[in-house]
Specification:
By secondary structure, this protein is α/β, with parallel strands linked by helices. It contains 8 helices and 5 strands, in the order E-H-H-E-H-H-E-H-H-E-H-E-H. Strand 4 (109-111), helix 7 and strand 5 (126-127) form a beta-alpha-beta unit. The chain has helices at residues 7-15, 20-27, 36-47, 52-65, 75-87, 94-105, 115-118, 129-133, and strands at 3-5, 32-35, 67-69, 109-111, 126-127. It has one domain (3-133): 3-Layer(aba) Sandwich (Rossmann fold), CATH 3.40.50. Helices cover 57% and strands 11% of the residues. The longest helix has 14 residues, at 52-65.
């Protein structure tokens, strides 16, 4: 099994919460990926931080630890899924949708605590490692 870690899961990892580090060890770090959108969101967090140097180091650690997947191959899926969600009146944010369809395009299980929104995406496979730790 291979996994795409959502931004919230990456933040829990950095904070040492919910046994995310243990879970990553268990499944193998080589089987865990992040989206370049997640990396952008983490960098935005650094830009807003009062402790930029510390948080920049943490984000650089994440970037070195996990393979960062581009969104390019998921753009057609993004367009189709956004159209479907709009027609059904259940849109989610573009960033959430881009991360979600990246997991589908790369045949990865989406690891997130944002199940409420991401479960709206057709064909997505989701695990919530926060819930599993409780």
């Amino acid at each position: 099994m291979k996994y795409l870690l959502d931004t919230d899961i990456c933040i829990f990892f950095l904070q040492g919460k919910y046994k995310i580090k243990d879970r990553i060890k268990k499944v193998g770090v080589e089987n865990c990926y992040i989206s370049e959108i997640t990396l952008a969101e983490l960098k935005y967090g650094v830009a807003n931080s009062s402790n930029r140097i510390k948080h920049l180091g943490e984000v650089e650690k994440m970037e070195a630890l996990f393979t960062v997947l581009p969104i390019y191959n998921a753009l057609d899926e993004f367009a189709n899924e956004k159209s479907r969600l709009k027609k059904n009146g259940i849109l989610i944010s573009d960033f959430d949708l881009l991360i979600g369809v990246t997991s589908i395009t790369n045949n990865l299980i989406m690891v997130t605590n944002n199940v409420k929104h991401l479960q709206r995406i057709k064909q997505i496979k989701i695990e919530n490692w926060k819930e599993m730790a409780l």
